[in-house]
Design brief:
By secondary structure, the protein is an alpha/beta fold. Helices cover 30% and strands 24% of the residues. The protein contains 20 helices and 32 strands. The strands form ten sheets. Strands 7-6-19-18-20-21-22 form a seven-stranded mixed sheet, sandwiched between helices. The protein has a five-stranded parallel sheet with strand order 9-8-10-13-14, sandwiched between helices. A four-stranded antiparallel sheet has the order 23-24-26-27. It starts with 9 loop residues before the first strand and ends in a 5-residue tail after the last helix. The protein binds adenosine-5'-triphosphate and magnesium ion (MG). Residues 271-274, 316-317, 393-396, 418-423, 444, 505-507, 519, 522, 616 line the site of adenosine-5'-triphosphate.
Length: 655
């Protein structure tokens, strides 16, 4: 498998840019086949991307069988993740920017070179050890999007502590649940954060969360709260509090990293958990790093010296894998943005791209759809000529949105990669590799090397050829979550019980006649209209392809004859005033596009949709409103803007 590690390929001109083509379509096919048939060989070779303190002797020890579920990669190897992301680059790129930080306020920025990153992380690692944090301890990070968030992740990795980043927008209650569940010994936070020109308190939520945690039967173990000064707001001060900016600089800027086993946990990350307690997915050190390093390099075709911008929050897995670990393991320059894509106006993303000459830009469809509400504003104030690759993640990208992203935002000069993956998978699982696989707008297309996706029906029978079913993965990959913290049973129940011997993603997908995959949405959201199964993605894409529509969410509601009928929530474009005529036009539009079975029964116009804090539509809530059952909405704690729900209930159509 000699060509599986990146090789300096031919320099070719694509989209008018010079790019280093590593593979062509035929080579991809060949390498993909080899990566599956000799899976251990492939991942054994990819593991050379990182430095091992003690080399591993076995690559893989995995069973997906329910009774004997275990997932281990490189299990007798030892490494340090931080050394791989920082120290080993000092020889060749100590002066290169590791992190470019762009403030919420467009006048604020900071560039951190690899040597500065080393010093910052070492001081913090020493400071944490001085507070008694050692290998295996859990540390909660409740941080704004500031460089200290990355320093803290890397410092934990350096001393072998396990970080759990809690999104800064979560409430004290959500924070308390996580502090208790992982029995954290330390919290690293800030006084407050800047987002969209406002300051949002963080430290007061930590104080409250610790009070809540104290009252729970398990109590909490937090002995230190390290507080970075970001917003400048005054805060209450307690015995266990320490100012980051005073305490950390008193420690030495060198630190001897602690070797960890490949299977030792690097972090725990809680998924929002649509029902019940959030799941603390536990990721490994060795396998996770190999996987994020490999997927980053291939998916974004990263070339030395380029600037990579992933516009996610470090509170999500995307921020872990593609702001911090993947880019830094590759010695890349990663841009970290403090604010929201729409502040001070819709042109901000393009302006940041011009200012820092961003080459690769990775963002969620929800943000692209927001830019599209006023296209002139969104792209009028920037050139964006540095861009080479555009990535999408988090939800299915509607074909029309893909096209705009490619044609207008990327000026037809960029490769677009739609990347499908999950918190549970650690890294990208499906994507059309740039310059290699010809993309189809809206399709995640092809599996990454070593990944074996398959479609099955309810009875777990494998569907061949063109098909529509549950998306499962047949064999493990190094970046896969190993368990749910403290709850292995739940891990097995959630992911390995629906389809025996397979990892069940919870998503549905279609495979087209060319063998390419299209994610149709979560299987819980699938509509069944008169016996026809419709994915939410398909119907929503048809609705948003109407020129007057900005965004849409589709759910089913009970119907006597059809079983389920279609209810559509629609946000019009800026300046459009919806009326009955437009409603009719939109219904005809969808019927024409998808056929009569997909014709919406109810169309409710709205100013907003209920979204999670990471920008995903919460269809669970919309289903309740559509069914006129809004009295029992369930858990709404992860909702970004609760007011939206009140408006939707007030104007509901099914009464
Ligand atoms: P929870 O599991 O707590 O409900 P979540 O699933 O939204 O939260 P993530 O792990 O961040 O949390 O998101 C993974 C899910 O996002 C996938 O299972 C899929 O439904 C969706 N998704 C991510 N990327 C894509 C993509 N490129 N195309 C289609 N869907 C995607
Ligand atoms: Mg999920």
């Amino acid at each position: 498998m000699s060509d599986s590690r990146e090789q300096a390929g031919n320099s070719t001109a694509v989209d008018g840019r010079k790019v280093n083509k590593r593979l062509d379509a035929a080579a991809y096919q060949k390498l993909y086949k080899a990566s599956v048939s000799d899976n251990e060989g492939f991942w054994g070779e990819q593991a050379d991307r990182i430095d091992w303190i003690k080399p591993f002797t076995t690559v893989k020890d995995v069973s997906f069988a329910r009774k004997d579920l275990h997932i281990r990669w490189y299990e007798d190897g030892e490494l340090n993740v931080c050394v791989n992301c920082v120290d080993r680059h000092l020889k060749t790129r100590s002066g290169q920017a590791a992190i470019i930080w762009e403030g919420d306020n467009p006048d604020q920025q900071r560039t951190i070179s690899y040597s500065e990153l080393y010093e910052e992380v070492c001081r913090l690692a020493n400071a944490m050890e001085a507070r008694g944090i050692t290998k295996g301890d859990r540390v909660i990070l409740y941080m704004p999007m500031v460089p200290q968030a990355a320093f803290a992740m890397l410092a934990c990795a350096r001393i072998g502590a396990v970080h759990s980043v809690v999104f800064g927008g979560f409430s004290a209650n959500a924070l308390a649940d996580r502090i208790v569940d992982c029995q954290a010994r330390m919290v690293i936070t800030a006084d407050g954060s800047h987002r969209g020109g406002k300051t949002i308190p963080l430290k007061p939520n930590v104080d409250e969360a610790l009070k809540i945690a104290e009252q729970q039967p398990e109590g909490h173990q937090v002995r230190t709260v390290l507080v970075s000064k970001v917003s400048g707001d005054s805060v209450d001060w307690l015995d266990h509090d320490l100012w980051y900016d005073e305490f950390v600089p008193t420690h030495e800027a060198v630190h001897e990293a602690v070797p960890v086993n490949a299977e030792d946990p690097l972090f725990i990350l809680y998924t929002s958990g649509s029902t019940g307690k959030p799941k603390g997915l536990q990721h490994s050190s060795g396998g996770y790093l190999v996987y994020t390093a490999t997927t980053f390099s291939y998916t974004f075709n990263y070339q030395p010296g380029e600037v990579f911008w992933c516009a996610a929050d470090v509170g999500w897995v995307t921020g872990h894998s593609y702001i911090v670990y993947g880019p830094l393991a590759n010695g890349a320059t990663t841009l970290m943005y403090e604010g929201v894509p729409t502040y001070p106006n819709l042109g901000r993303c393009g302006e940041v791209i011009d200012k820092h000459k961003v080459n690769i830009f990775y963002i969620a469809p929800t943000a692209i759809r927001t830019l599209m509400t006023d296209q002139k504003r969104a792209i009028g104030s920037s050139q964006r000529d540095s861009l080479r690759i555009l990535g999408s993640v988090g939800e299915p990208i509607n074909p029309g949105v893909w096209q705009w992203f490619h044609d207008e935002f990327g000026k037809g000069q960029c490769q677009v990669v739609d990347t499908w993956w999950q918190t549970e998978t650690g890294g990208i699982m499906m994507t059309p590799l740039p310059y290699v696989v010809e993309p189809k707008p809206g399709a995640a297309m092809t599996p990454f090397f070593g990944i074996q996706p398959q479609l099955v029906d309810k009875r777990s029978d494998i569907l061949e050829g063109k098909a529509d079913g549950h998306l499962v993965i047949l064999d493990s990959w190094p970046g896969q979550a190993r368990t749910i913290w403290n709850n292995h049973e739940r891990f097995i129940d959630t992911y390995f019980s629906t389809h025996d011997g397979m990892y069940f993603t919870g998503d549905g997908a279609k495979r087209d006649e060319d063998g390419h995959f299209w994610i149709t949405g979560r299987v819980d959201d699938v509509l069944n209209v008169s016996g026809h199964r419709l994915g939410t993605a398909e119907v929503e894409s048809a609705v948003v392809s109407h020129p007057k529509v900005a965004e849409a969410a589709v759910v089913g509601f009970p119907h006597e004859l059809k079983g389920e009928a279609i209810y559509v929530y629609v946000i019009p474009n800026d300046g459009v005033v919806p009326d009955e005529q437009l409603t009719k036009e939109l219904r005809d539009w969808v019927r024409k596009g998808l056929g009569p079975v997909a014709s919406p029964d109810m169309i409710q116009w709205t100013h907003g949709l209920p979204k999670t804090r990471s920008g995903k539509i919460m269809r669970r809530i919309l289903r309740k409103i559509a069914a006129n059952e809004h009295e029992t909405l369930g858990d709404t704690s992860t909702l970004a803007d609760p007011q939206v729900v009140d408006e939707l209930i007030d104007n509901r159509l099914n009464r």
